[in-house]
Fold:
Amino acid sequence: MLSNLNKKAAKTVQIEEKQFIVFLIGEEQFGVDVKQAREIITTTDLTFVPKAPDFVKGVINLRGEIIPIIDLKRRLGLNGSTGDVENQKIIVVELDNSLIGMQVDDVKEMIRLYKKDIATPPKIVKGINRDYLSGVGKLEDKLLILLNLNKILSEEEILELDRMEME
Amino acid sequence: MDTNSQYLQMFFDESAEYLQILNENVLMLEDNPDDEEIINAVFRAAHSLKGMAATMNFSKLTNLTHKIENILDKVRNKELHITEDIIDLLFAGIDYIKTLVDDLKKSGEEVTDISGYVEKLTRYLDGSYQSDDNNKDRGSQNSFKLTEKEKKQISLKLQETDSVYQIKVVLKEDCLLKNVRGYMVLKKAQELGFLVKSNPPKDTIEDEDFGFEIYLILVSSLNKEKIREELLNIVDVEEVECLNLDFVKKEAKDEDNEKTVNRSKKNLSNFEVSPTVRVDIKKLDNLMNMVGELLINKTRLEGLKISSEIYQDIIQQLDRVTMELHHIVMQIRMVPIGGIFNRFPRIVRDLAKELGKEVDLRIEGAETELDRSIIDELADPLIHILRNAVDHGIELPGEREKKGKNRTGTILLKAYQKGSEIIIEVEDDGTGINVDQLAAKAVEMGLTTHEEIESMDEREKLFFIFHPGLSTSDEVTDISGRGVGMDVVKRIVESLDGQVFIESEKDVGTRFTISLPLTLAITQALMVKVNQEIFAIPLGAISETLMINPDDIRQVRGQDVIVLRDSTIPIVEGARQLNLEVEYGNFKKKAEIPVVIINSGERQVGLIVDELLNQQEIVIKSLGNYLVNIKNISGATIVGDGDVALILDVRNIA
Structure:
């Protein structure tokens, strides 16, 4: 039956396909699972927090809620020129019931990736530790680095970093 | 409200809740007699009620619930099977509990006689009970008890001239159509007055399921003889006995009076129950958040500074309303601290006994109110301090006598409000903390050096007690079983935005002082500018603000100080405290330097800022899990223009 066929097709697509937001840090393309993202906002005035870890740019007021903004480039320890400040965006993600904003250089597009096109990451990709990656997506012309936000933005991880910096 | 009535209020609230649980579950039990979960639920409720009643010294209620609990225990252990009888028995018991509780509300005493019912329960427990209550009742003179509802009915019907009668109607043994005769008796009785109750009830009579006697309670204006005559006229009625039940009338009247002259009742009973609603604390939190949002927007409106009379008027009105609203919400969240204090006398008593000490715990200010969320957190730290006081503070009686002290040690637990803060003090007259020993231990643990100790004052040395590992080392008694050390006390109190101080003198005693904000959510703050950023300093921490000249600044041991009214106060630069990346020391070039004098414990510190802005109400928001433990920043707030301002944690400054 046709209806059954459609259902089946829909199901397979659901399993095999994931959507990602593609953004830029420097020249490099990164992807983050769209399910983790709440919204994308343009960079607003932020309040600097003294004595916070250096990758915390500050805090902003997002409709009455105060959320920290992470400089993703700093967090990942990437070098490279900052893109046009005009294009900078903040991707607001939800982790463990709290909101965190990630500042990126630009947001490009939304793409779909089939599961088969996502490979496990090699040990180090472009200077980023494998722990911070959830995979590498194969695009037609280049690679898309998929980030593991749970790891990058987890409290334990940040506390750990804090301690290291203090020593 | 005195303390006793406050406990009563709690007792009434909770007993109402347990009665509800009992009623619901016994009802369910009727349909599912084998469901152990329900039996357990009933058992627990009965048990809790018993505990509460025993605490309040309500002997009848305790006895009653105890018996009911025993029955349930038998059911639970499968020694007794749930039958209709037991269900009835339980319901009757619940009603008696209710009656007793109502008695207590009305008069403060357990008036209702429950001995009959308790006896019945006892017989059931002994296994000798047979379902013979009906027969027994028929035989006895006082054949039926009146429920509250029936008493009410009587009081409603009762005129001044009326009497309440208990009538016994005996039918002839050879009477045919007993049901019809019985029905006629009831009908006649209804004509003669107001028929409150009959035993057996009407349905039973119609089913012909009764002996030859019918008991009636009748309210009538007629006299005994007349009623007797009228009833004897019915065919097959053999005998009619009429008893005047004046006590019922009196009771009913009393109740009537109580209702009409409610005010006068107040003098008789020492307690009046005000209706209360229990609300999930989360809903109150949400309400508080919303009030916070409102405040933020109000501040934004104020910031518009439109020069119009109507605008000014509206702002003023809005200001008043939001203030009031804030006040009310805070009030709702406030509970008397006595709620946690009441557990302490027992704890102290038990511990003192265990250690062979004599301790008198005095509690003052139990009625002091604090935000609910703060109170919940406070119990453990306070218990810890109290245990410490008994364990390490108060000496053994013999030792105390040698020192010339009273054998019995005293611990004073005191709560009071001071400005926008609540102060809780725990003071003992014991041996005091051995400061040098404490310092020596700190050195031993590598926390500090001998040289540093030399230059420390008593206060600083005492503070070592809050260091993790140090305080607990000789306190392995683990009497608490909670493993709460003094460091945890400090941490909890600080997480509540409060502070702990210690004072101690050898052989005089030790005093712990905990200061806490009234509420966590909204507070008054001074807004200051440091390096172009706006920061909020909670007003509670500020003693004053002033402008100084660079000439006022002196140097003491390399530290900048100012002299304010004969006391020397160290001053520190805000930007430096916050590690801001600017050039320090610029303030000395200014003609006038704004300084905020901050109370940091017993000391005062002057904080140099760039500019003093204004004082305003701020809504305290957390920086989120992500930015906890940022030094010198305790949270953030949203200011008028929607920007975020950080709240300075000035307690540890300098």
